[in-house]
Amino acid sequence: MIVGVPKEIKNHEYRVGLTPPSVRELSSRGHQVLVQKNAGAEIGLSDEQYVAAGASIVDDATTIFARADMIVKVKEPQAVECAMLRDGQILYTYLHLAPDPEQTAALVKSGAVCIAYETITGAGGGLPLLAPMSEVAGRMAIQAGAAHLEKSKGGMGLLLGGVPGVAAGHVVIIGAGVVGTNALQMAIGTGARVTVLDKSIDRLRQLDLVFGNRISTQYSNAHAIEEAVLSADLVIGGVLVPGAAAPKLVTRAMIAKMKAGAVVVDVAIDQGGCFETSHATTHADPTYIVDGVVHYCVANMPGAVARTSTFALNNATIGHAVALAEKGWKKALGDDVHLKNGLNVCNGKVTYAAIAQALGYDY
Ligand code: NAD
Questions:
Q1: From the CB of 179, is ligand 1 less than 6 Å away?
Q2: How far apart, in whole angstroms, are the C-alpha atoms of residue 86 and residue 97?
C-alpha cells in the first residue's frame, strides 16, 4: 500500500501523522510511505530522519493525496484537503464530525473511507486514541498552573512545593480519569498537597490504593467541591460525562470566594468547561482573570508540546495503521470491531450512528 503523510495545515498545528519510527514499521513491511517535505521539521523530525526510516519525501500535498491509498494525519482535513480525497481512499485521523456539518458533507462527497481516531474503542474499554492527549493535557495542567501561580503571570506568587519551613500549595483536582490521574501524578511530584474528587468511588478506591496518604480523596458533590476549592491554590477541572457537555461544578459564587491570585485550569473546556466562569482561550493568550482568579482554558493543550504529543499519538495509532496497510480496510475492520468503531464515513455514507443522528443523515 502507498501511505501518505501530508504536512498539517491547520493554524498552529505542528504535530505530524507518522513519526520516523512509525514510518519504519510500515516501510519494513514493504509499504511505500510518502512524507511531505518538512512535515515534522517544526518538532525536530527532519526529512533526513524520514528518509532513513524508509520514506520518500514529496514536495507537495497534492501529489501525496493523488498517489496514496491511505492518508495518515492528525487534525481533521481542512476544506482544501477534503477536496483532494477520492473514492475509496482511506483517511485515518482525528475527525470530530458531530459539531462539523461542512466537513462531514465534504467527506461524504469525497467517497473516501474515513476512520476517526476519537471513536476507535479499546479492548479494555475507553477510547485509546484519545487517552494519550488526555495524558499530555493532565500533566501539562500542573505545569501551566504552577507557572501561572507566579506573580508575573497574574498569580499570587506561590511555589507549589513550598520550601523547608514554608507550607506547600494545595492542588485540587476535580475528575480522576485520565486527565485527573496524570495531573495528580505531576502534582505529587511538585510536593504540593493534593485533593482529588470524583463521582466514581471505585476510581477513588483505586487511587487510594496506589497513592495512599500522599493524596486526599473526596466523593464529588457540591459541598465537597466548595470546601476544596475555597482552600485551593490551584484547581484542575478534568471531568467528563460521555456524550454530554461538562457539568458546571464550580459556580461563579465559589470563584468569587477563592483566594486572590489562585489559578484554575479547565482542561474540560473542550466540552464546555466545568467552571461557570470558563471560556475557551488559545496558546497565544491563554489566561484571563475573573474575581482575582487566573483562568487557563486552552482547548488544545497538547498542541503546545507537539513533539511529545506526536510520539504519544503514534504509539496509539500505529498498530491500526499497520493493520490497515497490511490487510486493506475491509478485512482490517472486519477482523477488529474496535477499529470498525472508528469508521465514521464510508463511500459516501455516514456510518456512525451518533454523527448521523446529530447531523440528520440516514443511517
Ligand atoms: P475520563 O473519562 O478519563 O475521566 C473523566 C472523569 O470525570 C471520570 O473519572 C468521571 O467519573 C469524572 N466525573 C464525571 N462527573 C463528575 C463529577 N460531577 N464530579 C467529579 N468527577 C466527575 O476523561 P479524560 O480523558 O480524563 O478527559 C477529561 C476532559 O478533558 C474531557 O472533556 C476531555 O475532552 C478533556 N481534554 C481536554 C484537552 C485540552 O486540550 N483542553 C485535552 C485532552 C482532554
A1: yes
A2: 18
Q: Where are the alpha helices (DSSP H) in the chain?
A: 20-27, 47-52, 61-67, 79-82, 101-110, 131-148, 178-190, 201-211, 222-230, 252-257, 306-327, 329-335, 337-340, 353-359
Which three cell numbers mark 4? 501518505
The ipTM is 0.99
Sequence-distant (≥ 6) Cβ neighbours of residue 185 within 8 angstroms: 139
Mean pLDDT of 124-144: 95
CATH class, domain 131-299, is alpha beta
Lookup result for grid cell 520516523: 20
Going from N- to C-terminal start, the domains of the chain cover 2-120+306-359, 131-299
The class (CATH top level) of 2-120+306-359 is: alpha beta
Q: Is 301 in the pocket of ligand 1 (CB under 6 A)?
A: yes
State in Å: Cα 170 to ligand 1 middle: 20
Amino acid at 272: G
**CA neighbor of 75 nearest in space, from 158, 12, 24:** 12
Least confidently predicted of 49-53, 124-128, 143-147, 295-299 = 124-128
Same fold? 2-120+306-359, 131-299: yes
Nearest CA residue ID for atom 18, ligand 1: 199
Q: What are the beta bridge partners of residue 235?
A: 172, 264
203 in Cβ contact with 161 (< 8 Å): no
For the annotated catalytic residues, the residue numbers are: 96, 270
E strand or H helix at 287, and its extent?
Answer: strand 287-290
Which atom of ligand 1 is found nearest the CA of 239? Answer: 7
Phi and psi angles of residue 111, each rounded to the nearest 5 degrees, phi first: 80, 5
Cell 479494555 locates to: 124
